[in-house]
Design a protein that fits this description.
The chain has a 6-stranded antiparallel sheet, covered by helices on one side. Strands 8-5-11 form a 3-stranded antiparallel sheet, with no helix packed on it. A two-stranded antiparallel sheet has the order 1-2. Helices cover 37% and strands 21% of the residues. It has one domain: Homeodomain-like (Arc Repressor Mutant, subunit A). The protein is α+β, with helices and mostly antiparallel strands and 270 residues long. The longest helix is centred in the C-terminal third of the chain and has 18 residues.
């Protein structure tokens, strides 16, 4: 069985869409596909080994064998034990997107996985009504039902602008000037939207840019220059601090990405 879904071409709030066919059958192989602007669906059946989840600023709404929970944005990598045979479907919200949709400030979820009780009561009721018959659904249908049960708005232009500036490597003083905010105002709004202050958001955005280029085969020395690190040693220290492993291990694990069973699939390795 197959379902027609849509795939966006940009990473945060893309407007260009393509049709893609996603299997509705359960599989131990990790799969992900775009459901809408800033929303990526993913699914897998977990194995027995631990999974390293890397910080990426995303927030995930998780369905695990019928139970709902929320995984907040991480500040550093975490190792999550494997739970063999558990079926998971997730909606991964791009940085800054999730809090406005779920109604929970990101700062309340930083480095946490919380039960669905953390959601506002109206959101819980809508999700509960939509997911009454998940035992009869495949993963793609569950993901679509999750999204359809949420109240999606147009997003906050401030959040989008801040995420774009951080992802582009804009210096913190320049971000404040561009948004016409004092350092205190910028910090407060950043924590609510992303779970981090602007300094940590900038740091994680830079780490993710570097990771993408390293995995594409760019030499570490050149990657450091392109992504705003002072030198290769600085890049190496930052990768180890945020990922918990050296660059070599991080890039060699890229092939394991498609078998990872936990949130932020684009940022995990076994």
């Amino acid at each position: 069985m197959w379902e027609r879904v849509k795939e966006q071409s940009s990473t945060l709030v893309g407007e260009s869409w393509q049709s893609r066919r996603v299997s509705s059958e359960w599989s131990p192989v990790y799969r992900e596909w775009a459901l809408g602007p800033g929303v990526t669906a993913w699914t897998s059946v977990s194995g027995t080994g631990p999974v390293r989840v890397l910080p990426d600023g995303c927030l995930d709404l998780l369905w695990t064998d019928g139970s709902l929970s929320i995984a907040g944005p991480d500040t550093v990598a975490k190792l999550v034990p494997g739970e063999s045979g558990r079926r998971r479907v997730g909606l991964r919200f791009a940085p800054g997107v999730g809090p406005g949709i779920l109604g929970v400030p990101a700062g309340e979820l930083t480095d946490l996985q919380a039960p669905a009780d953390a959601l506002p009561s109206a959101q819980r009721r809508r999700l509960g009504r939509g997911l009454r018959h998940t035992d009869l659904m495949g993963p793609a249908e569950i993901a679509t039902t999750l999204l359809d049960s949420l109240d999606i708005d147009g997003g906050d232009p401030f959040v989008t602008r801040l995420a774009d500036l951080a992802a582009a490597g804009t210096a913190l003083p320049a971000i404040g000037r561009a948004l016409d905010l004092s350092p205190r105002q910028l910090h407060r709004r950043s924590v609510a939207a992303f779970g981090y202050g602007p300094k940590q958001l900038h740091r994680i955005s830079r780490f993710q840019r570097a990771l993408s280029q390293l995995r594409a085969g760019l030499p570490a020395a050149e990657c450091a220059v392109r992504t705003g690190f002072s030198d290769q040693s600085h890049l190496s220290r930052e990768v180890r601090a945020l990922a918990g492993v050296p660059i070599r291990e991080l890039t060699q694990a890229r092939g394991a990405k498609m078998s990872t069973p936990l949130p932020s699939g684009s940022s995990t390795l076994a």
